[in-house]
Design brief:
heterodimer; A: 272 residues; mainly alpha; globular; B: 280 residues; alpha/beta; Rossmann fold; six-stranded mixed β-sheet; five-stranded mixed β-sheet; 11 strands
Amino acid sequence: MTTQIREPVRSLAHPARARVWAMSKRNMLVQSRNPGHWFLLLVLPLVDGLLFGSIGVAFGEGEAPVRLLVTGVMLFHLIWQITLAGSLGLLEEVWSRNLMNLIATPLTEREFLGALGLVGLLRTMVSVSVIALVGLGFYSVAPDSAGWVLVPGAAILLLFGWAITLFVIGLTLQYGDSAEVFSWGTLVLIMPLSGVFYPVDSLPAILQPIAEVIPLTRVFAAVQEGLDTGAIAWDQLAIAAVGTLIALALATWFVDHQMSRFRRLGWITRFT
Amino acid sequence: MPRVAAMVETAPMDSGATEAVRPGDAEPTDDQIDPSLVLHARDLRKSFEDTVAVDGVSLAVHPGERVGIVGPNGAGKTTTLLMLLGAIEPDSGTVDLVGQRLPDGRGEAMARVGFAAGYIPLPERMTVRETLDLFGTLYGLAEADAAADQVLEELGIPHLAKQRCDSLSSGQGTLVGFAKAVIHQPELIVLDEPTASLDPDVAMRVRDRLEVMNTEHNATLLLTSHDMREVERLTTRVIFLRAGRIIANGPAEEVVEEAGYPDLETMFLAEASRLRTTEV
């Protein structure tokens, strides 16, 4: 075969932006064609919305419990979906042994993570919308019941979720498939301790000091106050923000450290 | 003097770095990037725990050259390739790739390099066209979708465009992997076992395409293969590795002649047998 080769047009105006978009599109395509992702994205939020809404109606008095539980599960999914999108995004590349293909392109680690973050935000929006619709449609709980505290609260939750994502990505670079459990399980470990659905003094006394140092606890306490009084507990949010920034700094250091080890110790050979 | 003889004389097994540069190449200095070279590696060394994988490999590749890296399993071929691509950081030594010093210039360099390996599958849950579009964009093509159609046409596989990558036969997958590596008309094409699992006629199509890219576009080829006949046909220079070191470097016919073998395959088999004996 001696076909003449024509020069393809080069010169992307913003190659880095185009790469982030291309990887975001890849993640969305891959996830949209995996039934498991649809289950996590739509069915589980639907089930959780119904479950917690109904528990609120069955065991609570008045509107307050159902509002707390529906708002709590909505915020839980907000953080969980961004964590899932990030950690499963890397795992998809591990499962399909595609990492070396990507490494052999100009794609940078930051661009790769940026794409995971974008898809995570999209997943979060979809999933939270499902629960908001369930709450509104079946239990007459407005998604903004807690008021303006939800804006800074959601921002802190997303940042904390991203810190967990980076931590799980760092583990996945080292342990590959075996790190899958962390993508599902890390938040499941943290959430019961952070007072999503109940005050932390409901926890066994031995666990309460641990709960106090988790930034999420402060966010959910602020949301609780927003639901009760409509006020914004800036003091709780400030503590949560500082804790989240520390967690984010540690997670960023960890993932940088793991990426450096990935190159130095030749971990790529585990994924080819 | 044929290069293979020079190599053996200047780099006995217990000496330091071994080099693979063409006769007449100027001695490189460590702090400068030589703009006349597509690829320039200096004294690469890599160990994994107690195992020395690459032990002082230096090589210089000029534009338009066709270089094969060969050697039995464990000789250090893949580790060397991965260091040349910046996927593994050497313990010591430097790599200049298409005028960029790694690791800092890796992103810019990789836009001008294509890589494919017969053993690496394509991404799952995407069609061939989507995959090529993705990689074309990652390489910086403004019209990646058009480039995808073009490369599929040139390889004679436009009918695969809408097929999912995970439903391709292994030969088709290797062919699409090759399309992915050349969609952006790279200056340097790095291929690890490029025609593994391909039917002879499809392998010939890949080789023909490589020759077209090399002759008409001056693309440089760097490949590893266990198919010595393919190496003899495709390359103009062979770098033979043993235990992470270069033991011969030159045109295949000169390498085998100097080593006293009738052809490259016999030399390869003798080296593999020697390695097994050493291991026992």
